[in-house]
Protein backbone atom coordinates (compact mmCIF):
# COMPACT_ATOMS: atom_id res chain seq x y z
CA UNK A 1 0.00 0.00 0.00
CA UNK A 2 2.86 2.38 0.75
CA UNK A 3 4.23 1.80 -2.76
CA UNK A 4 0.86 2.93 -4.10
CA UNK A 5 1.09 6.20 -2.19
CA UNK A 6 -1.05 5.19 0.79
CA UNK A 7 0.19 5.43 4.37
CA UNK A 8 -1.66 2.79 6.38
CA UNK A 9 -1.59 2.84 10.18
CA UNK A 10 -0.99 -0.73 11.29
CA UNK A 11 -2.07 -2.28 14.59
CA UNK A 12 -0.43 -5.64 15.18
CA UNK A 13 2.06 -7.60 17.27
CA UNK A 14 5.55 -9.00 16.64
CA UNK A 15 8.06 -10.82 18.79
CA UNK A 16 11.38 -9.52 20.04
CA UNK A 17 13.23 -11.75 17.58
CA UNK A 18 15.00 -11.54 14.22
CA UNK A 19 11.74 -11.67 12.24
CA UNK A 20 10.13 -8.96 14.38
CA UNK A 21 13.17 -6.69 14.13
CA UNK A 22 13.26 -7.19 10.36
CA UNK A 23 9.59 -6.27 9.93
CA UNK A 24 9.86 -3.16 12.08
CA UNK A 25 12.94 -2.03 10.16
CA UNK A 26 11.21 -2.68 6.83
CA UNK A 27 8.07 -0.76 7.79
CA UNK A 28 10.07 2.21 9.05
CA UNK A 29 12.17 2.27 5.88
CA UNK A 30 8.88 2.52 3.96
CA UNK A 31 7.96 5.60 5.97
CA UNK A 32 5.22 3.89 7.95
CA UNK A 33 4.34 4.63 11.55
CA UNK A 34 4.96 1.64 13.84
CA UNK A 35 3.31 3.12 16.93
CA UNK A 36 0.54 0.53 16.67
CA UNK A 37 2.93 -2.44 16.53
CA UNK A 38 3.34 -4.15 19.89
CA UNK A 39 6.72 -5.89 20.26
CA UNK A 40 6.60 -8.57 22.94
CA UNK A 41 9.58 -10.27 24.60
CA UNK A 42 9.85 -14.07 24.66
CA UNK A 43 7.20 -14.42 21.95
CA UNK A 44 7.70 -15.61 18.37
CA UNK A 45 6.69 -13.28 15.57
CA UNK A 46 3.62 -14.69 13.76
CA UNK A 47 4.67 -16.69 10.71
CA UNK A 48 3.02 -18.83 8.05
CA UNK A 49 4.74 -21.63 6.14
CA UNK A 50 3.13 -22.64 2.83
CA UNK A 51 3.66 -25.57 0.49
CA UNK A 52 3.04 -25.07 -3.25
CA UNK A 53 2.72 -27.56 -6.09
CA UNK A 54 4.64 -27.44 -9.36
CA UNK A 55 2.23 -24.94 -10.88
CA UNK A 56 2.55 -22.56 -7.96
CA UNK A 57 -0.82 -23.37 -6.39
CA UNK A 58 -1.05 -23.55 -2.60
CA UNK A 59 -1.64 -27.11 -1.39
CA UNK A 60 -0.88 -26.84 2.34
CA UNK A 61 0.02 -24.32 5.00
CA UNK A 62 0.90 -24.09 8.66
CA UNK A 63 0.27 -20.87 10.59
CA UNK A 64 1.75 -19.85 13.92
CA UNK A 65 -0.14 -16.74 14.98
CA UNK A 66 -0.48 -17.33 18.70
CA UNK A 67 0.98 -13.91 19.46
CA UNK A 68 -1.91 -12.24 17.65
CA UNK A 69 -4.49 -14.33 19.49
CA UNK A 70 -2.92 -13.59 22.87
CA UNK A 71 -1.70 -10.00 22.70
CA UNK A 72 -3.81 -8.19 20.08
CA UNK A 73 -6.52 -7.50 22.65
CA UNK A 74 -9.39 -4.99 22.68
CA UNK A 75 -7.46 -2.92 25.26
CA UNK A 76 -4.53 -2.59 22.82
CA UNK A 77 -6.91 -1.59 20.03
CA UNK A 78 -8.61 1.04 22.22
CA UNK A 79 -5.30 2.87 22.50
CA UNK A 80 -5.63 3.75 18.83
CA UNK A 81 -9.31 4.59 18.78
CA UNK A 82 -8.52 8.01 17.30
CA UNK A 83 -6.76 6.43 14.31
CA UNK A 84 -9.62 3.98 13.76
CA UNK A 85 -12.35 6.61 13.98
CA UNK A 86 -10.54 8.93 11.55
CA UNK A 87 -9.52 6.34 8.99
CA UNK A 88 -11.01 6.28 5.47
CA UNK A 89 -11.22 2.49 5.78
CA UNK A 90 -10.45 -0.12 8.43
CA UNK A 91 -9.17 -3.51 7.29
CA UNK A 92 -9.42 -6.42 9.72
CA UNK A 93 -8.10 -9.90 9.11
CA UNK A 94 -9.56 -13.00 10.66
CA UNK A 95 -6.38 -13.81 12.61
CA UNK A 96 -7.62 -11.41 15.28
CA UNK A 97 -9.38 -13.05 18.22
CA UNK A 98 -13.19 -12.72 18.06
CA UNK A 99 -13.40 -10.19 20.91
CA UNK A 100 -10.87 -7.93 19.17
CA UNK A 101 -12.69 -8.19 15.86
CA UNK A 102 -15.90 -7.10 17.54
CA UNK A 103 -14.22 -4.23 19.42
CA UNK A 104 -12.62 -2.87 16.24
CA UNK A 105 -15.89 -3.19 14.30
CA UNK A 106 -17.83 -1.28 16.94
CA UNK A 107 -15.26 1.53 17.06
CA UNK A 108 -15.37 1.88 13.28
CA UNK A 109 -19.17 1.63 13.16
CA UNK A 110 -19.62 4.38 15.76
CA UNK A 111 -17.54 6.72 13.60
CA UNK A 112 -19.12 5.71 10.29
CA UNK A 113 -15.91 4.14 8.98
CA UNK A 114 -16.28 1.30 6.43
CA UNK A 115 -14.78 -2.04 7.48
CA UNK A 116 -13.14 -4.56 5.15
CA UNK A 117 -12.89 -8.13 6.48
CA UNK A 118 -10.10 -10.34 5.11
CA UNK A 119 -11.06 -14.00 5.73
CA UNK A 120 -7.46 -15.39 5.79
CA UNK A 121 -8.55 -19.05 5.66
CA UNK A 122 -11.63 -21.25 5.42
CA UNK A 123 -11.62 -21.99 9.15
CA UNK A 124 -11.06 -18.41 10.29
CA UNK A 125 -13.43 -16.94 7.71
CA UNK A 126 -16.26 -18.17 9.94
CA UNK A 127 -15.31 -15.52 12.49
CA UNK A 128 -17.42 -13.14 10.45
CA UNK A 129 -20.62 -14.60 11.95
CA UNK A 130 -20.92 -12.36 15.06
CA UNK A 131 -19.71 -9.21 13.27
CA UNK A 132 -21.38 -9.51 9.85
CA UNK A 133 -23.69 -6.56 10.55
CA UNK A 134 -20.64 -4.29 10.84
CA UNK A 135 -18.80 -5.47 7.73
CA UNK A 136 -18.88 -3.22 4.68
CA UNK A 137 -16.74 -5.32 2.38
CA UNK A 138 -15.04 -8.71 2.40
CA UNK A 139 -12.63 -10.43 0.02
CA UNK A 140 -13.01 -14.24 0.17
CA UNK A 141 -12.10 -16.87 -2.37
CA UNK A 142 -14.74 -19.34 -3.51
CA UNK A 143 -14.40 -21.74 -0.58
CA UNK A 144 -14.17 -18.98 2.03
CA UNK A 145 -17.28 -17.35 0.57
CA UNK A 146 -19.32 -20.52 1.06
CA UNK A 147 -17.89 -21.07 4.56
CA UNK A 148 -18.86 -17.52 5.55
CA UNK A 149 -22.39 -17.95 4.23
CA UNK A 150 -22.81 -21.26 6.05
CA UNK A 151 -21.54 -19.74 9.30
CA UNK A 152 -24.48 -17.34 9.14
CA UNK A 153 -27.14 -19.83 8.05
CA UNK A 154 -28.80 -22.68 9.85
CA UNK A 155 -28.95 -25.34 8.64
CA UNK A 156 -25.92 -25.35 6.31
CA UNK A 157 -27.23 -24.99 2.77
CA UNK A 158 -24.48 -23.52 0.58
CA UNK A 159 -21.84 -25.55 -1.20
CA UNK A 160 -19.10 -25.31 -3.77
CA UNK A 161 -17.65 -28.10 -5.90
CA UNK A 162 -14.63 -27.36 -8.04
CA UNK A 163 -15.09 -28.43 -11.64
CA UNK A 164 -12.64 -28.51 -14.52
CA UNK A 165 -14.00 -26.53 -17.47
CA UNK A 166 -12.80 -26.52 -21.07
CA UNK A 167 -12.50 -22.75 -21.28
CA UNK A 168 -12.60 -19.69 -19.08
CA UNK A 169 -16.08 -18.62 -20.19
CA UNK A 170 -17.56 -21.94 -19.09
CA UNK A 171 -15.68 -21.72 -15.79
CA UNK A 172 -17.03 -18.24 -15.07
CA UNK A 173 -20.60 -19.31 -15.89
CA UNK A 174 -20.25 -22.33 -13.60
CA UNK A 175 -18.78 -20.26 -10.76
CA UNK A 176 -21.58 -17.71 -11.10
CA UNK A 177 -24.28 -20.38 -10.89
CA UNK A 178 -22.55 -22.11 -7.97
CA UNK A 179 -21.67 -19.04 -5.90
CA UNK A 180 -24.52 -16.59 -6.55
CA UNK A 181 -26.81 -17.95 -3.77
CA UNK A 182 -24.07 -17.48 -1.16
CA UNK A 183 -23.22 -14.01 -2.50
CA UNK A 184 -26.84 -12.85 -2.38
CA UNK A 185 -27.25 -14.30 1.12
CA UNK A 186 -24.23 -12.40 2.49
CA UNK A 187 -25.50 -9.15 0.99
CA UNK A 188 -28.85 -9.77 2.65
CA UNK A 189 -26.96 -10.02 5.94
CA UNK A 190 -25.82 -6.43 5.51
CA UNK A 191 -22.46 -6.71 3.76
CA UNK A 192 -22.37 -4.04 1.06
CA UNK A 193 -19.63 -5.35 -1.20
CA UNK A 194 -18.11 -8.76 -1.96
CA UNK A 195 -14.83 -9.06 -3.84
CA UNK A 196 -14.62 -12.78 -4.57
CA UNK A 197 -11.23 -13.88 -5.87
CA UNK A 198 -11.38 -16.69 -8.43
CA UNK A 199 -7.69 -17.32 -9.15
CA UNK A 200 -7.01 -17.52 -12.87
CA UNK A 201 -10.71 -16.87 -13.53
CA UNK A 202 -10.52 -13.31 -12.19
CA UNK A 203 -12.78 -11.63 -9.66
CA UNK A 204 -16.49 -11.32 -8.96
CA UNK A 205 -17.59 -7.92 -7.61
CA UNK A 206 -20.98 -8.34 -5.97
CA UNK A 207 -23.03 -5.50 -4.50
CA UNK A 208 -26.44 -3.91 -4.36
CA UNK A 209 -27.20 -1.41 -7.07
CA UNK A 210 -25.89 2.09 -6.41
CA UNK A 211 -23.21 1.01 -3.94
CA UNK A 212 -20.62 3.73 -3.35
CA UNK A 213 -19.67 3.36 0.30
CA UNK A 214 -16.27 5.06 0.26
CA UNK A 215 -16.99 8.19 -1.75
CA UNK A 216 -19.25 9.77 0.86
CA UNK A 217 -17.13 8.74 3.84
CA UNK A 218 -13.60 9.21 2.53
CA UNK A 219 -11.71 11.43 4.96
CA UNK A 220 -8.16 11.34 3.63
CA UNK A 221 -6.47 13.63 1.16
CA UNK A 222 -5.30 12.26 -2.14
CA UNK A 223 -1.57 11.76 -2.54
CA UNK A 224 0.20 12.83 -5.76
CA UNK A 225 0.41 9.15 -6.72
CA UNK A 226 -3.29 8.49 -6.20
CA UNK A 227 -4.22 11.65 -8.13
CA UNK A 228 -2.02 10.57 -11.03
CA UNK A 229 -3.47 7.07 -11.00
CA UNK A 230 -7.05 8.35 -10.87
CA UNK A 231 -6.42 10.77 -13.74
CA UNK A 232 -5.01 7.99 -15.90
CA UNK A 233 -7.96 5.71 -15.20
CA UNK A 234 -10.56 8.44 -15.65
CA UNK A 235 -8.95 9.47 -18.91
CA UNK A 236 -9.45 5.96 -20.23
CA UNK A 237 -12.68 5.02 -18.49
CA UNK A 238 -14.70 7.66 -16.59
CA UNK A 239 -15.92 6.66 -13.16
CA UNK A 240 -19.66 6.67 -13.92
CA UNK A 241 -19.74 2.89 -14.04
CA UNK A 242 -22.97 0.87 -13.87
CA UNK A 243 -22.92 0.80 -10.07
CA UNK A 244 -23.13 4.57 -9.89
CA UNK A 245 -25.78 4.77 -12.62
CA UNK A 246 -28.31 2.73 -10.68
CA UNK A 247 -31.10 4.09 -8.53
CA UNK A 248 -30.45 4.63 -4.86
CA UNK A 249 -33.76 3.05 -3.93
CA UNK A 250 -33.04 -0.17 -5.79
CA UNK A 251 -32.33 -3.29 -3.78
CA UNK A 252 -31.35 -5.51 -6.67
CA UNK A 253 -28.01 -7.28 -6.70
CA UNK A 254 -25.30 -6.84 -9.33
CA UNK A 255 -22.44 -9.24 -9.96
CA UNK A 256 -19.57 -7.92 -12.04
CA UNK A 257 -16.87 -10.20 -13.42
CA UNK A 258 -13.41 -8.79 -14.02
CA UNK A 259 -11.12 -11.36 -15.67
CA UNK A 260 -7.56 -11.97 -14.57
CA UNK A 261 -4.76 -10.41 -16.62
CA UNK A 262 -2.51 -12.88 -18.42
CA UNK A 263 0.74 -13.32 -16.51
CA UNK A 264 4.00 -15.25 -16.61
CA UNK A 265 3.76 -16.85 -13.18
CA UNK A 266 6.89 -17.07 -11.05
CA UNK A 267 5.34 -17.24 -7.59
CA UNK A 268 1.76 -17.00 -6.35
CA UNK A 269 2.81 -16.12 -2.80
CA UNK A 270 1.41 -12.76 -1.76
CA UNK A 271 -0.79 -12.21 -4.81
CA UNK A 272 -4.01 -12.20 -2.79
CA UNK A 273 -2.60 -9.72 -0.28
CA UNK A 274 -1.39 -7.52 -3.13
CA UNK A 275 -4.85 -7.57 -4.70
CA UNK A 276 -6.48 -6.46 -1.44
CA UNK A 277 -3.79 -3.83 -0.84
CA UNK A 278 -4.31 -2.45 -4.33
CA UNK A 279 -8.08 -2.29 -3.85
CA UNK A 280 -7.74 -0.48 -0.52
CA UNK A 281 -5.19 2.01 -1.83
CA UNK A 282 -7.29 2.82 -4.88
CA UNK A 283 -10.49 3.27 -2.86
CA UNK A 284 -8.71 5.63 -0.47
CA UNK A 285 -7.27 7.48 -3.47
CA UNK A 286 -10.69 8.25 -4.93
CA UNK A 287 -11.18 5.48 -7.49
CA UNK A 288 -14.59 3.84 -7.70
CA UNK A 289 -15.24 0.21 -6.85
CA UNK A 290 -14.64 -1.31 -10.27
CA UNK A 291 -11.54 0.79 -10.93
CA UNK A 292 -10.18 -0.16 -7.51
CA UNK A 293 -10.63 -3.89 -8.07
CA UNK A 294 -9.06 -3.55 -11.52
CA UNK A 295 -6.03 -1.91 -9.90
CA UNK A 296 -5.91 -4.73 -7.37
CA UNK A 297 -5.93 -7.28 -10.21
CA UNK A 298 -3.04 -5.43 -11.89
CA UNK A 299 -1.01 -5.40 -8.66
CA UNK A 300 -1.70 -9.12 -8.22
CA UNK A 301 -0.39 -9.71 -11.75
CA UNK A 302 2.81 -7.85 -10.91
CA UNK A 303 3.12 -9.94 -7.76
CA UNK A 304 2.88 -13.35 -9.46
CA UNK A 305 5.48 -12.23 -12.00
CA UNK A 306 7.91 -11.34 -9.21
CA UNK A 307 10.00 -13.62 -7.00
CA UNK A 308 9.31 -11.28 -4.09
CA UNK A 309 5.92 -11.31 -2.38
CA UNK A 310 5.56 -7.60 -3.15
CA UNK A 311 6.67 -6.22 -6.55
CA UNK A 312 9.79 -4.08 -6.24
CA UNK A 313 8.67 -1.34 -8.61
CA UNK A 314 5.15 0.03 -8.97
CA UNK A 315 4.14 3.24 -10.76
CA UNK A 316 0.86 4.82 -11.73
CA UNK A 317 1.70 4.33 -15.40
CA UNK A 318 2.59 0.65 -15.01
CA UNK A 319 -0.55 -0.05 -12.97
CA UNK A 320 -3.09 1.81 -15.09
CA UNK A 321 -1.64 1.87 -18.58
CA UNK A 322 -0.62 -0.57 -21.28
CA UNK A 323 -2.53 -3.38 -22.92
CA UNK A 324 -2.39 -5.46 -19.75
CA UNK A 325 -3.41 -2.80 -17.25
CA UNK A 326 -6.81 -2.38 -15.63
CA UNK A 327 -7.54 0.67 -17.76
CA UNK A 328 -7.37 -1.54 -20.83
CA UNK A 329 -9.76 -3.98 -19.17
CA UNK A 330 -12.20 -1.24 -18.23
CA UNK A 331 -12.08 0.39 -21.63
CA UNK A 332 -13.44 -2.81 -23.14
CA UNK A 333 -16.47 -2.85 -20.86
CA UNK A 334 -19.30 -2.75 -23.36
CA UNK A 335 -22.06 -5.04 -22.23
CA UNK A 336 -24.04 -6.35 -19.33
CA UNK A 337 -25.28 -9.70 -18.18
CA UNK A 338 -28.55 -10.13 -16.38
CA UNK A 339 -30.12 -13.11 -14.72
CA UNK A 340 -33.78 -13.03 -13.81
CA UNK A 341 -36.66 -15.32 -12.95
CA UNK A 342 -38.73 -14.16 -15.90
CA UNK A 343 -40.04 -16.63 -18.42
CA UNK A 344 -38.27 -17.24 -21.67
CA UNK A 345 -40.99 -15.55 -23.74
CA UNK A 346 -41.00 -12.45 -21.53
CA UNK A 347 -37.23 -12.12 -21.86
CA UNK A 348 -37.33 -12.53 -25.63
CA UNK A 349 -39.99 -9.83 -25.98
CA UNK A 350 -38.03 -7.38 -23.85
CA UNK A 351 -34.79 -8.09 -25.70
CA UNK A 352 -36.36 -7.58 -29.10
CA UNK A 353 -38.26 -4.46 -28.05
CA UNK A 354 -35.25 -2.69 -26.58
CA UNK A 355 -33.74 -0.13 -29.03
CA UNK A 356 -30.25 -1.09 -30.13
CA UNK A 357 -30.55 -4.70 -28.99
CA UNK A 358 -31.39 -7.78 -30.96
CA UNK A 359 -31.83 -11.34 -29.83
CA UNK A 360 -29.59 -13.87 -31.57
CA UNK A 361 -29.89 -16.76 -29.15
CA UNK A 362 -32.22 -17.78 -26.37
CA UNK A 363 -31.89 -20.59 -23.87
CA UNK A 364 -33.52 -21.51 -20.61
CA UNK A 365 -31.68 -22.50 -17.46
CA UNK A 366 -33.69 -24.34 -14.84
CA UNK A 367 -31.07 -24.02 -12.08
CA UNK A 368 -32.81 -22.76 -8.93
CA UNK A 369 -35.96 -22.12 -11.01
CA UNK A 370 -34.31 -19.15 -12.72
CA UNK A 371 -34.92 -18.53 -16.41
CA UNK A 372 -32.12 -17.00 -18.44
CA UNK A 373 -32.48 -15.45 -21.86
CA UNK A 374 -29.29 -14.96 -23.81
CA UNK A 375 -28.81 -12.34 -26.46
CA UNK A 376 -26.18 -10.28 -28.17
CA UNK A 377 -26.38 -6.55 -28.60
CA UNK A 378 -25.39 -4.09 -31.25
CA UNK A 379 -23.13 -1.38 -29.81
CA UNK A 380 -23.96 1.26 -32.40
CA UNK A 381 -25.39 3.65 -29.82
CA UNK A 382 -23.45 2.49 -26.80
CA UNK A 383 -20.12 3.70 -25.41
CA UNK A 384 -18.23 2.02 -22.56
CA UNK A 385 -18.56 5.13 -20.43
CA UNK A 386 -22.32 5.28 -20.87
CA UNK A 387 -23.64 1.89 -19.91
CA UNK A 388 -27.38 1.74 -19.49
CA UNK A 389 -28.78 1.47 -15.95
CA UNK A 390 -29.08 -2.15 -14.93
CA UNK A 391 -32.75 -1.91 -14.05
CA UNK A 392 -33.74 -1.63 -17.72
CA UNK A 393 -32.17 -4.98 -18.59
CA UNK A 394 -34.19 -7.97 -17.33
CA UNK A 395 -32.33 -10.35 -19.62
CA UNK A 396 -28.85 -11.74 -20.01
CA UNK A 397 -26.60 -10.12 -22.59
CA UNK A 398 -23.88 -12.47 -23.76
CA UNK A 399 -20.72 -12.04 -25.84
CA UNK A 400 -21.12 -9.37 -28.48
CA UNK A 401 -21.19 -11.08 -31.86
CA UNK A 402 -23.16 -8.52 -33.86
CA UNK A 403 -21.10 -6.27 -36.08
CA UNK A 404 -21.69 -2.54 -35.85
CA UNK A 405 -23.81 -1.07 -38.67
CA UNK A 406 -21.86 0.09 -41.68
CA UNK A 407 -20.83 3.70 -41.47
CA UNK A 408 -21.60 3.97 -37.77
CA UNK A 409 -17.99 4.63 -36.86
CA UNK A 410 -18.21 2.15 -34.01
CA UNK A 411 -16.07 -0.94 -33.62
CA UNK A 412 -17.35 -3.94 -31.71
CA UNK A 413 -14.87 -5.04 -29.07
CA UNK A 414 -14.71 -8.35 -27.26
CA UNK A 415 -16.24 -8.23 -23.79
CA UNK A 416 -13.95 -7.97 -20.78
CA UNK A 417 -16.01 -6.75 -17.85
CA UNK A 418 -19.18 -8.79 -17.59
CA UNK A 419 -22.09 -7.77 -15.43
CA UNK A 420 -24.94 -9.79 -14.01
CA UNK A 421 -27.91 -8.10 -12.40
CA UNK A 422 -29.85 -10.45 -10.16
CA UNK A 423 -33.55 -9.77 -9.73
CA UNK A 424 -33.53 -12.53 -7.16
CA UNK A 425 -32.25 -16.04 -6.64
CA UNK A 426 -35.14 -18.43 -6.12
CA UNK A 427 -33.91 -21.31 -3.99
CA UNK A 428 -35.44 -24.74 -3.96
From TrEMBL:
This chain's protein is named Pseudouridine kinase
Q: Does the keyword Transit peptide apply?
A: no
Q: What Pfam families does the database record attribute to this sequence?
A: PfkB
Q: Where is the Carbohydrate kinase PfkB domain?
A: 2-215, 253-307
Q: Which UniProt keywords apply?
A: Kinase, Metal-binding, Transferase
Q: Where are the transmembrane segments?
A: none
Q: Which PANTHER family match?
A: CARBOHYDRATE KINASE PFKB DOMAIN-CONTAINING PROTEIN (PTHR42909:SF1), ZGC:136858 (PTHR42909)
Q: Which GO terms describe its cellular component?
A: cytoplasm
An example molecular function term from Gene Ontology annotations:
kinase activity
Is Transferase given among the entry's keywords?
Answer: yes
Q: Which InterPro entries match?
A: PfkB_dom (IPR011611), Ribokinase-like (IPR029056)
The family database entries (SUPFAM superfamilies) matched by this protein are listed as: Ribokinase-like
Write out the ranges of the annotated region (Disordered).
341-363
What is the native source organism of this protein?
A: Panicum miliaceum
Amino acid sequence: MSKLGTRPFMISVVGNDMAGDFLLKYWRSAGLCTEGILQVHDVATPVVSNVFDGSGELIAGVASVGAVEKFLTPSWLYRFRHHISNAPLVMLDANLPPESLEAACIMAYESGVPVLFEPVSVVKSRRIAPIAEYITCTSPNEIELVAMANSLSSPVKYNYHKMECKDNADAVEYLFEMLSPAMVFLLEKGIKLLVVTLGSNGVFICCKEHTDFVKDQRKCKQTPFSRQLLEKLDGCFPSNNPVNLCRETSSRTCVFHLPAISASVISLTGSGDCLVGGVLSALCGGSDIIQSVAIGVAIAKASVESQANIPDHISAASVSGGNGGPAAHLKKCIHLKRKSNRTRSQDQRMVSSRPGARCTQSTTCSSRNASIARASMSTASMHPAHLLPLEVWPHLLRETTAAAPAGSGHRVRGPRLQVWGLHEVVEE
